[in-house]
Design brief:
heterodimer, A: alpha/beta, 9-stranded mixed sheet, 18 helices, 25 strands, elongated, disordered N terminus, B: alpha+beta, 4-stranded mixed sheet, globular
């Protein structure tokens, strides 16, 4: 028997947790250890912040010292630029956790090239700094800037390969950055950057419908499992890069058979015994059909069982929501004082979609509710491009379900009678249940109808029921048995109903 | 006659052929152009990474003209004599001599 690892080559490379929020989920455990990863992006895409964060998190979360080689900005600029994220580089430099290798150009100094050279100087300095600090992480920012400092590109190319190789020998995990000129063009400006590193991550900063949208893509991840595609990220004022994994979470989604009450026994009955706990329900209808009332029942019903509810209002002011609830006999303010409710109202355009998403998630994490309401989702749809909106809904739904929270989203349809909306079409496949609220024109009178269109994993009442609203809230009456075409907005009354109708008139 | 003293620092990596070449080229050039008024310090970056750090050395060999001011840098094995003289701001002697003859 031998102690040597059996067929070590077949083993996937070990990974190093970056500590960058969300990234370690995408990469299934971090960056390949002892390898180099290229972070490529156009100017302003967040490369330097990403790189600095890799080192900063290494220090704060894993007590791993790091070396930052800068070929572009001066150490002083970098210290200043990242101070707002709470990273005190000078302090870390003082206690030997962080070391700069300053290879930034000195504009006052003219360099004459007289014969053959290599980059042995910077190489020796990197080794010296790694030895001195006992660094486990190395950043080189940026490879592209090295080219601009020297005339002989072939020397630079060879030397960068040599530096990447020696990083591996030093046993550090390296993040190398590269500048690119187009968001969907070559990985690096000099065409060689992607070959220097083992792995390639692309940061994008795309203008889509007047909104900046940052994404991160794991373009090449040698021999290790990772998530494909572009994933949105934001640069938060106090945390730096926060990646939002999209497709990963649903895989882990639990589904439970636990039912929770909608707060309205009649609606519970229609749904086959209430909503599922880890599910997302879409309540869709025109203005005034009873969406906010459904929300109010949902929150009040939850509070009665001791469930905490978190309401995000994007259509109406806080005062308006409280007043409405009072009108139906529910006291939101008292619920808030009791700690079972929190109402957060905001103007949808106040921030971008990704910022909204992060705020929602943060508040959910802080308040730890059992029920979450977004009233309305369609108001948020105005804020960003359809693709980003859809991604946001997917992400939020996953997040809510993962936390075993029941989510209720409302959607305001643009037409009063019948009709579907863009939001409905967009997200109906993403939600577990759909409840439609519709105006029904009946004999010259507007009535409201409710229908449970979809209820994933359960039997449900498929009839359209008449809705009446009074001071105690919503009541579901008899089905509109004799009318068809309500959903399309063109109700057709059956013959018997017409006969009864004629009878009514003749009696008068 | 210019009597400024030249203080030159040459950073090299180990004892590579390129380092040897640079040292030989520098010595020859100094002897020919700066006889009696130069001082050379040779520093191996592998042995003294901190000195390389302080002087912000990237390429090796790097020649730094510490004195007289202004500070100048020349990189490479110094095989291109004209470039080295240009970089050090030194006018070659034969050129000076030619200039004097013309006067």
């Amino acid at each position: 028997m031998t102690d040597e690892p059996v067929n070590a080559r077949a083993l996937p490379p070990a990974k190093v947790l970056t500590g960058i929020p969300g990234l370690d989920n995408l990469t299934y455990g971090g960056l390949p250890a002892n390898r180099s990863t290229l972070i490529s992006g156009s100017s302003g895409s967040g490369k330097t912040i990403f790189a600095a964060q890799f080192l900063a998190r290494g220090i704060t979360e894993f007590d791993e010292p790091g070396v930052f080689v800068t070929f572009e900005e001066s150490p002083e600029d970098i210290r200043r630029n990242v101070a707002s994220f709470g990273w005190d580089l000078a302090a870390w430099e003082g206690n030997g956790k962080w070391a700069f290798v300053d290879a930034s150009p000195n504009p006052e100094e003219e360099i004459v090239e007289a014969g053959e050279y290599d980059l042995g100087g910077v190489m020796a300095r990197i080794k010296g700094a790694v030895d001195r600090t006992g660094a486990r992480r190395l950043v080189i920012d940026s490879l592209s800037a090295v080219f601009s400092q020297f005339q002989d590109a072939s020397v630079v190319r060879n030397e960068l390969f040599r530096i990447a190789r020696s990083a591996r020998e030093m046993g550090v995990t390296a993040v190398l950055t590269a500048e690119r000129t187009e968001e969907y063009g070559p990985v690096g400006r000099y065409g060689v950057e992607e070959f220097i590193a083992d792995n390639v991550v692309v940061l994008r900063n795309v203008l889509e419908e007047e909104q900046r949208r940052r994404t991160l893509e794991l373009l090449k991840f040698r021999g290790t499992d990772h998530q494909k595609g572009e994933h949105p990220f934001v640069i938060e004022a106090d945390r730096g890069v926060v990646v939002i994994p999209l497709t990963g979470i649903p895989l882990e989604q639990r589904s439970s058979n636990v039912r929770v009450s909608s707060g309205n026994p009649e609606l519970d009955a229609m749904c086959g015994g209430g909503f599922f706990r880890d599910s997302v329900i879409l309540v869709s209808g025109a203005t005034g059909t009873g969406k906010t009332l459904t929300v109010t029942h949902f929150l009040a019903g939850g509070a009665q069982q001791g469930d905490r509810g978190l309401l995000f209002g994007y259509e109406e002011s806080r005062e308006q929501l409280v007043r409405n609830a009072t009108g139906w006999g529910v006291d939101f303010e008292r619920m808030e004082n009791d700690g079972v409710l929190r109402v957060h109202c905001e103007y949808p355009e106040a921030r971008g979609l990704q910022d909204h998403l992060l705020r929602i998630k943060r508040m959910i994490e802080q308040f730890a509710p059992q029920r979450v309401v977004i009233d309305s989702l369609s108001a948020l749809e105005r804020v960003g491009p359809p693709k980003a909106f859809r991604q946001m809904v997917i992400d939020l739904s996953s997040f809510i379900k993962q936390k075993s929270i029941t989510g209720l989203f409302t959607n305001t349809t643009p037409t009063l009678v019948g009709g579907t909306s863009v939001t409905e079409a967009h997200i109906s496949s993403l939600t577990d249940s759909i409840i439609l609220l519709r105006y029904v024109e009946m004999f010259g009178e507007m009535q409201r109808g409710l229908m449970v269109l979809k209820m994933r994993g359960s039997q449900h009442d498929k009839e359209i029921r008449e809705v009446t609203i009074d001071s105690t809230g919503m009541h579901l009456g008899e089905p509109f048995r004799t009318v068809s075409g309500i959903l399309s907005g063109n109700p057709v009354h059956s013959r018997e109903e017409l006969a009864r109708l004629e009878g009514l008139f003749s009696q008068e | 006659m210019d009597v400024e003293r030249y203080l030159l620092k040459l950073y090299v990596t180990g004892q590579s052929p390129r380092a040897e070449r640079a040292i030989a080229n520098l010595r020859r050039l100094c002897k020919e152009e700066l006889e009696g008024r130069y001082e050379i310090e040779i520093i191996d970056v592998l042995e003294h990474p901190q000195l390389a750090e302080d002087d912000r050395i990237l390429a090796t060999p790097t020649l730094i003209k510490q004195l007289p001011p202004p500070l100048r840098r020349v990189i490479g094995d110094l095989s291109n004599r004209d470039k080295v003289l240009l970089g050090l701001d030194v006018r070659p002697r034969n050129e000076l001599a030619q200039g004097e003859e013309k006067q």
